[in-house]
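Q: A reviewer asked whether we had any structural model of the full assembly, not just the individual parts. We don't, so I'm hoping you can provide one. Inputs are below.
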Amino acid sequence: MNTLVLASELTKRPVVTLEGEAVAQIKDTVFDGPAGQITGFTLNGRGLLSGPLKQSLPWPAVHALGRHAVMILGREVLAEPAAVVASGEAAGGGVLGVRVLTDEGTDAGTVLDVVVEADGRVAGFQVAAIEPPEHRRRTVFIPRGEGVAVSGQALVIPAEACRFVADDLPSFTAQVEIFRTRQAARGTGAGQEGRERTW
Amino acid sequence: MIWWGWLIVAAVMLLALAAAVAGVQARRRAGTVIAVQRGRRFGKGFRKGGDR
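A: Here is a predicted structure for the entire assembly that you could use as a starting point for your response.
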């Protein structure tokens, strides 16, 4: 599995061409909710006095999503903002802070961050969870299930995903693997034992 | 102009510069995560060529 990174850690990461020119820095991370895939990034200019750029970075133009920089082939791969997100979508599509509901109607908390892989897939969500029965608050990582629905009001996840939570990113990697194996096995009808744990 | 008049001019210029920087920083709002729905522009159940 690829290295996991929080979307908030991508913000302000420099966008650098393979010639070594830093052309921008990441502002927003945009992802396709149903597909669970990053579609691109909106950009800020470099420097104190530069505002948002009238260009965006579509995911197919990303050469590498590195630990310290996002690499692109050249400045020419940058596209118009609508190639990544339309202005209406940007206004109503914010995910951070929205309520997390399971498909069984249980309130699982609120979204703190989105966990992405280096290949652009959304692995899951960092959630301020509400622990039953005492309703204590706790930060956990929940894998993204298939058919996840997300809007500016709520994120709806499969209830089964809540049985594969983790407390930190390293252990979350294993939980995501188990969850995906479990879902794939369910798709083929085969049984699979996972290391289930819930909050 | 009396000498402290230049102080007022300098102060106003500094204020204008600070406002410009603040404006730019506001436009450079903190990044966020945005969810979009690609391939579902026509709603659930849409079939290309119309529902039959």
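A: Points you may want to mention in the reply: The domain at 99-188 of chain A is CATH 2.30.30 (SH3 type barrels.). Chain A touches chain B at residues 7-8, 10-12, 26-35, 39, 42, 44, 48-52, 85-86, 89-90, 93-96, 113-114, 150-151 (CB under 8 Å).
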